[in-house]
Amino acid sequence: SPGAEESWDALFNDDGDCLDPRLLQELSGGEERRESLQEPRFNYYGAEPAAPDLSDDELPHVIEIYDFPPDFRTEDLLRVFCSYQKKGFDIKWVDDTHALGIFSSPITARDALSTKHLMVKTRPLSQGTRAAKAKARAYADFLQPAKERPETSAALARRLVIGALGVRSNQTRAQRDAERKKLQEARERKRLENKQREDAWEGRE
């Protein structure tokens, strides 16, 4: 309205400077108050997620293996823990210098923790890095205790013995075909199980 325009003209000159000292003080004070606002004490955007809280009773058969050379491969770690392989031992990688060691039982895992190993260090998973805990928690269903290596099947053992002795088998053709089919099915089942575990570990569907 014309009255409002005239009031603004009385408060400000042509250069936009405020002509009312009281209003100028209020404007300046408001600016100072805005500048004096306290910065937030916590940066919610830059905060890292908290490490998963794992107790000693959760996944007690799994330990963290760390501080080994970055060029180490799976076979190098398996060689370090070769004495545990017969009872059952597996490796799951976290990064180039950290891995999860999966044992057959908590007792075996504690034994590995109490033993000094060449070129690697170990610690309970509950004391592990954030990345190790997160991976263990995310893939807990696939970190079941490592199983003892299965004994050679009777069919395969029989073939090895017969082949070594150079004698003929007294099995019928049907029996041999049945055993051969059973072995093939077992191999295929194991191959699929391994592939499913690898896909789940890598996050593939």
From TrEMBL:
GO terms for molecular function: nucleic acid binding. This is R3HCL protein. Residues 174-205 have a biased composition (Basic and acidic residues). The gene is R3hcc1l. Signal peptide: none annotated. Residues 171-205 are annotated as: Disordered. It comes from Nothocercus nigrocapillus.
